[in-house]
Every structure is written in C-alpha cells, then in structure tokens.
Amino acid sequence: MEDNIKDNAINIAQSIIAGNIDPNLGCDKLAQLCEENNHPSELAMFSLLSHDQRGHEHLGFDLENTATEIIEESRKFVSKNT
User: Fold this and answer.
1) Residues 6 or more apart in contact with residue 54 via CB below 8 angstroms
2) Which residues contact 33 (CB under 8 A, 6 or more apart)?
3) In whole angstroms, what separates CA 43 from the centre of its chain?
4) d(Cα 8, Cα 45) in Å, to the nearest integer?
5) What is the predicted pLDDT for the residue at 64?
6) Where along the chain do its domains lie?
7) DSSP string spanning 11-78?
8) Could you list the pLDDT tens digit for every one of the 82 residues in the chain?
9) Most Cβ neighbours (<10 Å): which of 11, 23, 37, 80?
10) What does DSSP assign to residue 7?
C-alpha cells in the first residue's frame, strides 16, 4: 500500500479510536479507500465490516453491533502500521 494511502487510512482509524468520527462512517471511508486503491489486504476487513453493517440485520449484523469491531480493527490497523 502506498504511503499516502496508508497515512490517510491511519488518520481515519485514529479518528475512529479517538471518537472524533463515528465508527460506522469511518469504516465506510476506509472501505472506500480500499476499493479505490485496488483492495490492499491491510484494509480488507474494513470493506467486509462496511458491507456487513447494513442490510444484514437478519444475520445479526447492524450499525450498532459492528461499531465495537470497527474500533478494534482500527486499533489493530494503527498498531501494525505506525
């Protein structure tokens, strides 16, 4: 993953962790970044979580219960990439 993409992703993830951005919105931004940049593996989980958070209520996924996992994945991402 290119440095500018990684830096942007780190900034978004740090904003999620700090509570400066809603986890679901931040996840959508990270998923978009992933899709726009040839799906780097480091961001793949955010694409999955973004997909799961809407329209999968019948499977037990929704905005509320994916937020905790988004925050945890953000922590992992920042830890591995800083």
Assistant:
1) 62, 63
2) 5, 8, 9, 12, 43
3) 7
4) 16
5) 76
6) 3-81
7) HHHHHHHHTSS-HHHHHHHHHHHHHHTT--GGGHHHHHHHHHTSS-GGGT--HHHHHHHHHHHHHHHH
8) 899 999 999 999 999 999 999 999 999 999 999 999 999 999 999 998 998 777 766 666 666 788 999 999 999 999 999 9
9) 23
10) H
